[in-house]
Structure formats: C-alpha cells, structure tokens
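note to self: dont lose this again. the chain is below, predicted strucutre after it. 660 aa total, dont forget to put it in the shared folder this time
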Amino acid sequence: MSETAGPNRSPVAEAGPDRAVQVGESLILDGSESRDPDGDALSGAWRLLVVPDGAQAVPVPLDTDPLRAQLTPDRAGLWMVGLRVRDRAGLTASDALVIRVEPPQACQRDDDCEDFDYCNGLDTCDPQGVCRHSGNPCPGNTICDSPKKRCVDCLRDEHCPPPGELCQKAHCESEAGLCRTVNDDGAACDDGDFCNGKDNCRDGACSVHSDPPECPFGCNSSANRCNECQDSGACDDGNACTDDRCENQACLHPCLDSRCAHLEPRPGSEPGSASFEIDTCPGAVSPGNVLCQSSRNQSALLIDENLDEGFGMFDTVSSEVTLESAAQNPRRPGLKGARICMNMSVVSTSLDTRGLADVLVAFSAANESLGTDQMFVLDYTTNGSDWVSLFMFGEGKPQAYRDFFVFLPADAENQEDVTISFFLLGNNLGASDCAKLDDVRVFALLPAARTNDLLSADFEGTPCTLGAFTVTGNAGDVTPILDSGSCRVRLKENRNGALVSPLIDTSAVARENLLRLSWEWKAEGDVRENRYWLVEFSIDNGGTWLPLAATGHAEPPLSYTRFSVLLPCEAYGTQSLRFRFIAPDTASSGASELAYIDNVRLSAIEPQWVDAFSPIEDLGGGVLGGHISSSQGGTARVECRIGCGPNLLWTSREDISIQQ
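---
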C-alpha cells in the first residue's frame, strides 16, 4: 500500500556508481538505492546495453533481492548495464552504469591482487601470475555488505520476507543486518465485517473502524452487505415484467412471464421526438431483434379489434363463434380470441373505403382442428356483388397462430359498401371443427416514397413462356398459354402442379420497408366448394411452404383481378425466398377447373413514413430504450415486434405524445 496519498508518482532508479574490474572477476550489480516516492516496493531487471565483441556473460539475478544481480565479464572492454525498476502501479524508471573491464592483472603475490571489495571474495595470485577472486562469500540466503565486510539477512525492508499476520510488517535493522517483525500501525486492513466500515491497524491488531456504510434498511454482517429492503415496496426495479419482492432483506426480481413485453412512454421528450421503454425479461431480448411501428404510418384505420371485450365493429357474428381465453393469440398481449366452429359460422363487418386505396386486412389466425375438406376463409363483396375468396387454410394441416396481410382488390377501393367476412366452409364441419381468429385491423397504406421491383414476370413471348419460373408436380398441367390477347400461365385444379418462382434475395431490404407480392388471376369452370388454388412462400428453397393467399372454394374471381399480400417478417434477410401458385391434391374435382395467372410482381416498398424510429438500445436489467421522431406533433400509438417466426412477440400498444 502506498504511504503517500494522492496521484501515483514514478519511481527513481539508481544503478550505482561506475565500476572497474578484470576479466573473469565477478561483481554485484546493486540497485538497492532505487526508491519510490510513494513508498511502494520495487521490482527490477538488469540488462546489457553495450558489450565488447564476443562477450557471452549475462547478469544473473540474485534470488534474495529483485534489484541485485551478479555479472562476471568474460571480455575486456567497455560494458554498459541498464537497470529498469517498476512500482506496483506499473510506472517505471531506468538508470545505467559503465563497467571498464581490464585484462587479467599480472601478479607475483596475493597482496598484488587486493581490490578492497569484500564481496569479490578472497584475492589470490594463481601459479600463472594472474589475479583470481573467489566470488561472493555469503551463503545464498544472505546479502553481502561490502563496506562492512559482512554477510547479513538484509540491508533494507524489501530484503525481508513479509510476515503472515495481519497488521504486521517486515523491518530491516540495518545496523544489525537482521529482519524483524513490527506493528504496521495505520495500515488498511479488513476484519471481515462489512458493517464495521473501513478498518485500520493499531497496536498490531485490526482494531480501528470508521465510516460505517449507510444502510437505510440495516446492515447484514453475515452477507457482507447492506440489507436491500424490509418490504417489497423498496424493490421496484422499474421493469413491469419482473416480480419485485423482498425476501430475507434482499430484493428479488424473478420474471413473471418469459414472453412479457410491455411498452411505456418515457418523460423528457424534445420537440419533434419522444422516447419510450420496452420492459422484457432480463436477458430474453436482443435490441437488434426489435422493430417498432406507429399507427400514424397508416393513412386511415378502419378496424382495430383485439376481441378482448367483445366483437366491436363486427356486426354479424354466428352463435357458434365464441370469445375464449384459450383462443387468444399468444403472440400479442390480450385476454381473448374468437373460436369459430361449425359450417358457415361467420364473423363479418362492413367497410366504407371511399377515398382510400391500398386497403390492407391484417389479422392473426390459427387452425385448431379443421380436417380434410374443411377450410377457414377470408372473402369480400362490394356493393352486393358476388363474393370473392382472398385467403384460406385448413385441410387437416396444422397451423399455429400466424399474422397475415391481405389487400382488398381494386374493386373494393373507394367504395361505400364493402363487406369482409371470416368463416368456415367444408364437409362435415361440427362443433369440434374449429379455427381461431384474433387481432383484426383494416387500414390503408401510405403512398410509396420509393419502390424497387425484385421480381417481375408477364410471361410474354413467342410462344408464351414461363420466364424465370419453373414447374413442379404435374408439369403438363402448368402451361404458358395465350388468353384474352395476353400470355398467361394456366394452372389446372386438383393435379398438384405448381408454378414456382426463382430464388429471390431480400437481404438488402430494410426491415421497416414492405415486401409486397401482387399478381392477377381468374378462375374458369365449375369451381365449387373444396376446389381452390393457393399462394405460398418458402425461405428454405422450397423445403417448407407457408400460406399467403388463396382463391376458389366456390368464390373465385371470374375475371382477371389483381390480388396482393404483404410478406411476413420471415421473408426478410434471406437469399432463399421462393413463392408458388399451386393446385393442391387435397382439393377435390377434376382438371376442368382452371386458374390463369399473370403479371406477377414482388416489390420492396418504402412508404412515406410519418414517424421514424431510431435503433433500439439496451438500458440494462431487461429494459430496452426506443426513440421516435416526427415532423408532426400529436399522439402516435406505438407497438414493437420482437423476433420473428414461431417465437415472434408483440409488445403492448401505447399512446406516445410527440411535441411539435
């Protein structure tokens, strides 16, 4: 421990005076006069800086002293030896001495060899008339004191081994050359009791205590800490996802639910911006997996129903449709969802889309128990015209809750009376044949600021061509053909043939932008129930296919109609995206029912966003920080998506005020 308070200061190196010896004569390199102004113990190392040609000798450290070494020069000439010392903080200092090495001294008797250096040992004249010195006369565990011609235990405190007792220190009695153990009064110590405060030595014992810790809830000596609490009210960590409680005077913060994600505004916003926090389970969420969105990035919100308290704007609901907690979408916060069972059970509502284009129906749905020839369907009608199906799944294929995004076709835009319905249709649908529906929103998109087509195909050519598309399944039933003056691809129903896109790279598409797939199609023939075509996508080069849209099932478009969907988050950041149009072998009937497909386009769209979000930050303890900026004041309803795929999770939706 430094003896002087304040900033650490550099040590001072003292290599000792220049020396003169003969070849073969040993000398002690002694840096014991080096010192540290802060009282730190020093370590040191000797090294050769200049030596005569052919010299092989090197300094040999003495185990008893880190600042001393022995050198026996083996060549006449000028030697320069450097000393570098280091204190406990790592600061260093250097010094050097010059050694003039003469050839061996000629002699006739021992008196001719006297060098007056006790530590060189006996000085003798050998039979060849050369002076010899026997070397350090002291045993290996002692130090040679040349001025006093003696061997001692120590010359200074650093030569003495440290004592093993607390509040004791080693001291060298230089006159006697002996090590003694003395009290280290005033030194810092630790008696093992945190609650005593700072400890210091007095009379050889750790007995002085000062500055006890400030512990509002008391001090716990056995735990070596302040008590954190007396009741759970003192344990609030500011994270809504943790259960803050006091046990044994310690705060515990176990996570309530591993999928908890709560968003709340943060005070202190500046004009044109606002901040918010997302509470999650500590360690459960990486900031890079969070993407936030604002309600003001939609030009018009027509429906927003989470089905927790009732059916809201849905004005037609069959009696077989019930709201149940077991039907709630686990990917979003909520209490209930709709369980739809029995044939022709329906949930529907009317929309006024006047003045609107690009109207998107966003919803979450799951197949609970629909079997063969049983389908969950989304369809629409405009001003009482024929119903047209837009989406369906079922046929005994398991389907956990997923998010879907289906646009209303152009004939449903700018209309006073548009009806959409979710319903079940199929054979032998009973009370146990069910689908689930939750979190339905209908809104119009903002205009696009920029659009980049990733894929475009019109199948034109002479003859008509598939272009970059390929065919799987029954290839003869997927045919480029001329229809109504344009090239299309004809897809027969119930043959399991598929029109498959090439691989598409979406790795450069920003996550906040939109991937929109659109195409034109019409049906031909007697497309009754259980006769349909699907649009699906894959991100593993066709290994697994997931639903995007569908038509048929007694409600196909009978003239060319442009369908459009937004691709879900799984479609981003991949080089292995494909989509396909398929007439599955699960549908019933023959090859006389046909679908014609044309003008397929996949586009990356950057809308004219109103509100923008900065990257999410990790604030620690499971709390994430977000920031929204906007050119408009007012209130934005914000929610954030965490992750993607089966583990996707949405935060709560909260209103955030933005100052102008």
